[in-house]
Amino acid sequence: MKKKQFLCLITACTLLSGCAQIEQEELSPETVLTATGTTALQSESAADSTIPKRETVALQVPEITRQDAKINIEAEDAAIPEQCAVAVMPRLGYSGTGYLSGLNAENKVKLSLQAEIPATQHYDITFVVGSAVPSTCKILANDEPVYTLQAEPTDNFVRITVQGVFLNSGSCTFSIEPVEGSIDVDCLELTNNESLYEESAAVADAPVDPSASAGAKKLYTYLKDAYGSKIATGQYVSDNTGKEIGEIYSITGEYPMIRFADLGAYSPNGGDQTKATAIADSLAWAEEGGAVGLSWYWNAPTGTPSVYAKDTTFDLAKAVTEEDVASLSLEALQKKQQAGEISEECCALIQDIDALSADMQPLADADVPVLWRPLMEASGGWYWWGASGADAYRWLWNLMYTRMTSYHNLHNLIWVWNGQSNTFQVDADKYDIAALDLYVEKEEVYGSRYEQYVALRNMVPGKMLAISECSNIPDITAMFRDNAVWSFFGLWYAPYLGEYTDNQALVDFYHSEGTLTRNDYAAALQG
Predict the structure, then answer these.
(1) Cα(315)–Cα(309) distance, rounded to whole angstroms?
(2) Which of 22, 111, 211, 375 has an alpha carbon 20 to 30 Å from 496's alpha carbon atom?
(3) Residues 254-305: tens digit of each pLDDT
């Protein structure tokens, strides 16, 4: 399906820097790309002897020396690039003796600022800049990209701070390279970072569902006990062949711990029952010792069958009611609709939830725990469940939670909230894990995504944090270095698996002592 991918967390008042939207076209089974030099689905017993077997790779985390630091570097003291000049007018409010003016993308020049870094640790870097037009600059430290700075037009200087940048002690050259527009630079300030080292609130000992099944409790406890010291591997599949799982195994000799799939084909309105195999596939995966993750790209219950608000006439706001409908029978709901007490949209929503709950019942019967991620990326507004605003979204989340747990007794679900914004945050007692979809452009270093980790941690204290969708595997060393060890990640399929990933990086990641694979989880279940 074509779906907009959300790169980062939206806070109450601002979009975190470095964020954008990218679109992903639907890929048929014929066009799904495979990783370079690998084969299609391959069973472990038939695996080629050349496939690497897991030899645990120790983490190589640099030693951090924390100390107070405060450094100011004036732009006018640096070597002035061609076609730039030191100015004192018209932009006021600068520090030092002036500011650098005229750093323009058309000139293809960059500003280099020299600094002596006192200690190997994380720093907050503040850029004091101004711009007459919307502008974008790449920021590099010793030629390594660390940030993409975006400045809006302003008459004054503004302060843009990047938190938690890791720097080694010694000489460092900071480069500011405009890629669009032009920018004036007053100075650069460095201070030691504290936010990465703030203590997190203790994670709850059990799932929020008081009637959680034994299987759900076991998976939750497994993730909780590993949280902060291990990251669970995960891979999305594009169809029932599981070709992506086979790709991972053929490259690494290991299977991901979590197999992620979508239940969109089960949507009553416009679903495709010929492709509705995710439940059976998940049962088979669980029998092999793996953990199950499921999402629901839910076609609107009525009208054009689409997940996109722009493509359907379904309006969630019309479904919202103050009536207590979550525990009513279908017959009682229909009577309320006929009496005009609830809308057709409300009744249709519940019928869809009921239908999917029935489809998911085999998982509950087998007590297969599910990392359940419905109603994702709501704050983007592109899906119908987010387009009517935060209040309607929260009403729907509460309805779904109550209907699936209390009415249908699906107590094998571990609820993953992926609303992407504190504006769309749901009640803490109705989800277990907070997750973000974090995509970056192909050429961008993925790193640990520590900025989003810290922002989400501050938003939802006491919850495990995860990367629910991603364009590449996170940097295992950077995660531990930055104190940003996510609970799990889910790598999306092609073009991300294949074009964005590097085979050796996958091997190193899956063999790291900091990761959990299917073998690890299966062994724990047997223990």
Answers:
(1) 8
(2) 375
(3) 999 999 999 999 999 999 989 999 999 999 999 999 999 999 999 999 999 9
Distance CA 8, CA 93 (A): 32
List Cβ neighbours of 143 (8 Å cut-off, separation of 6 or more).
Answer: 173, 175
Distances (CA, A) of 58 to 242, 371, 477, 484: 30, 29, 10, 18
Burial class, 241, CB count within 10 angstroms (exposed 0-12 / middle 13-18 / buried 19+): middle
Contact 145, 157 (CB under 8 A): no
Among candidate residues 270, 125, 109, the one with its CA nearest the CA of residue 187: 125
Joined tokens for residue 430? 């109705």
246: enclosing H helix or E strand: helix 243-252
**What whole-number distance in Å separates Cα of residue 65 and Cα of residue 46?**
48
Q: What domains are there in the chain, each with its CATH number?
A: 3-9+21-57+206-526 (3.20.20.80), 70-193 (2.60.120.260)
Could you tell me the two tokens for 214? 């034994």
* DSSP conformation class of 57: B
Give tens-digit pLDDT for 322-367: 999 999 999 999 999 999 999 999 999 999 999 999 999 999 999 9
Element (H, E) at 194: none
**β-strands 3-6, 21-24 pairing:** antiparallel
Rounded to whole angstroms, the Cα distance separating 401 from 410 reads: 10
